[in-house]
Amino acid sequence: MAPSSVSAIKVDGKTGHERVRAGEEFELPSREVTITSIEIHDIHRTDVGIELRISVICSAGTYIRAIARDLGSILGVGGHLSALRRTLVSPFDLSECAPWESAEPIPTATGISRILPIRELDPSELNEISFGRTISANQTERTTAALSADGTFVALLANRQIGEKILAAPTLVSMKESAL
């Protein structure tokens, strides 16, 4: 599937929409995406055409506007997107949302624990990480979120081969003096 030329995809450092606004003509290369399902909820005629209300489960990098464009082209009727609503950005689901006026941010540690494995650091490990040093390897190959004993996000740790040892190295550190 080829993304729309007015997307935010960068080509030579400039976004597609910047290039279009500057009058450039170009095509973005097609990319492989996975569409797990397309469910049609409603089809109805309007004064100007036919509208479909659908749900799509797809992989990252899928441009829903491109699906509408391509379906319209295949059917020979033209197609565009009039509305888009994300209901899931894994692992976060629309059912967990609150109205803007009453929404509360979730703690960093809560959000990151839904994405990455968690490792609670002891005080000596916290000290080492605060200086950018390595500590003993994570139990998993994946990047791990390191938390202090009080649940505060401290760092992202990735296992690295250093000499003959595998150690966890900080790749992103968010240290506060109170965490030590």
Notes on the structure:
- The structure is a single chain.
- By secondary structure, this protein is an alpha+beta fold.
- It folds into two domains: 10-89, Alpha-Beta Plaits, CATH 3.30.70; 108-179, PUA domain (Archaeosine Trna-guanine Transglycosylase, Chain: A, domain 4), CATH 2.30.130.
- The protein is 18% helix and 31% strand.
- The protein contains four helices and eleven strands; from the N terminus they run E-E-H-E-E-H-E-E-H-E-H-E-E-E-E.
- The protein has helices spanning 16-21, 64-75, 108-113, 123-130, and strands at 10-11, 14-15, 35-45, 50-58, 88-89, 92-93, 118-120, 135-136, 144-147, 153-162, 165-173.
- The protein has a five-stranded mixed beta sheet with strand order 7-9-10-11-8. Strands 1-2 form a two-stranded antiparallel ribbon. A two-stranded antiparallel ribbon has the order 3-4.
- A hairpin with a 2-residue loop joins strand 10 and strand 11 (165-173).
- The longest helix is centred in the middle third of the chain and has 12 residues, at 64-75.
- It is elongated and about 70 Å long.
- The chain starts with 9 loop residues before the first strand and ends in a 7-residue tail after the last strand.
